[in-house]
Amino acid sequence: MADRFGSRLRVEAERWVRDGLLTSAQAERIVARHPASPAWFTRPIAIFSILGGALIAAAIALFVAHNWHEIPRGAKLGGVIVLLLAAHLSGLALRARGYPKAGEGVLVVGGSLLMVGIALIGQIYNLSGRESDALLLWWALLLPAAYALPSVALVVLAWAGVAAWYWELAFDRTTWLGAELHSASGFTAVAIATGGLLAWALGVLHGDGGYRRARQFLEQLGLLALAGALVALGFLGRDTWWPVAGGAPGRPAALLALLLLAAVAVAVAAFRLPADGATARTGLPAALFLLVLYLLAVVGALAARAPQTTLRALAYADWALLFAVSLALILYGARWDRTSWINWGVVFVGVNAVARYVDLFGTMLQTSALFFVTGVFVLALGWALEKLRRRMTAQAATVRGSA
Questions:
Q1: How far is CA 234 from CA 165, 238, 305, 329, in A?
Q2: Which pLDDT score is estimated for 392?
Q3: What is the largest CA-CA distance in the chain?
């Protein structure tokens, strides 16, 4: 597998020559300065180094596990600290010597060892607590260090820790958020959608500079959470969505605060979107603001124990909003060269269509004829959406090439 930059440079150089931007001789000199080299994992020394290192690490792990109870506490903690420092120092040294990818990989190992150290301290001293507390301590220590180094890989790892912490908060009834969300089953879906909006906004705030990979990770994580929650909210009005408690649940103060925070985050992220006309820049944030208002309406309806007809009306509104957001992602992804937005927008349309089909015709799915129709429908929908995705992706590539 050739180096991606060198291979792409050769393709782009040929295009520049066809467009008259460079002569053939100039293009050859540029390509010669950045030749495509074989990928590191195609070299025998790399393969044997990985295998040898893995075997040595496994041997050390088995030895430590066998003698774990006989190892003194100080030695356990000292070993983790030494490994932690060695991983970070080695990662920084590799980056300084011109091996950025290898250095980032070793830094990720160091960041993971921090979580191991937290778990080890809890095990040694028999500390009791929730898993969310350990995750909170981990990302709270890791996130500032990731930006201070700086390390994009550690930034991604730290934000993944934030996402895991938020997930634990939402589904653990003993936490301040989980106890509130448990009062009505729909509150959890709203919390996940709110987390998706926050993640997307945080991704946009990272921009297209050195933290572009972190932006892509957070954007896609946010869109995945947002889509899953909105598809679930499309089934509002069924018996499973009634509040769990006997009476109406209390006002979810923490959830309302998170929704307010999501609205502020989307407003701030609007200023970090790619340069464009004022009307174009406000289109996508406006669609997301509508989502925040919709989520507020869902919270209000569940908290007031609204009748089933109201919940079904909110479900129909969810269908329309999910389609509108999907369309906005496809159009703006093509306009701003965000191909991941295009892909997610197409996926949202397909998933929403299938979910709505099951919702409307779910009672008839016991007949083999309808199963056949469903299969044809899914195949036709997948073909149409793939065609749309390729067209929009090609349009985004055209915009990128003309820029």
A1: 26, 10, 17, 19
A2: 66
A3: 79
Euclidean distance between CA atoms 324 and 289, whole angstroms: 12
Distance CA 105, CA 91 (A): 7
The one-letter amino acid code at 77 reads L
Q: What is the 3-state secondary structure (H, E, C) of 287-347?
A: HHHHHHHHHHHHHHHHHCCCCHHHHHHHHHHHHHHHHHHHHHHHHHHHHHCCHHHHHHHHH
**CA 194, CA 340: separation in Å to the nearest integer?**
20
Tokens of 377: 């429908």
Query: Phi and psi dihedrals of 36, rounded to 5?
Result: -75, 125
| CA–CA distance, 156 with 213 (Å, rounded to integer) | 8
How many Cβ atoms from other residues are within 10 Å of residue 273's Cβ? 18
Each residue's pLDDT tens digit, 177-195: 988 888 777 899 999 999 9
Helix (H) and strand (E) counts for the chain? 15, 0
Measure the CA angle with vertex 305, ends 303 and 307; round to 5°: 140
Residue 402: left if φ>0, alpha if ψ -120 to 50, beta else—which one? alpha
How many residues does the structure list for the chain?
403
Amino acid at residue number 250: G
Tell the residue number behind the tokens 């782009």, with chain if given: 12
What are residue 243's DSSP bridge partners? 184
Res 333: pLDDT: 84
Tens of pLDDT, residue by residue over 384-401, are 766 766 776 666 556 555
Question: How many angstroms separate the CA atoms of 357 and 378, rounded?
Answer: 10
**CA geometry: angle at 136 spanning 131 and 141, to 5°?**
135
Q: Does the global pTM surpass 0.85?
A: no
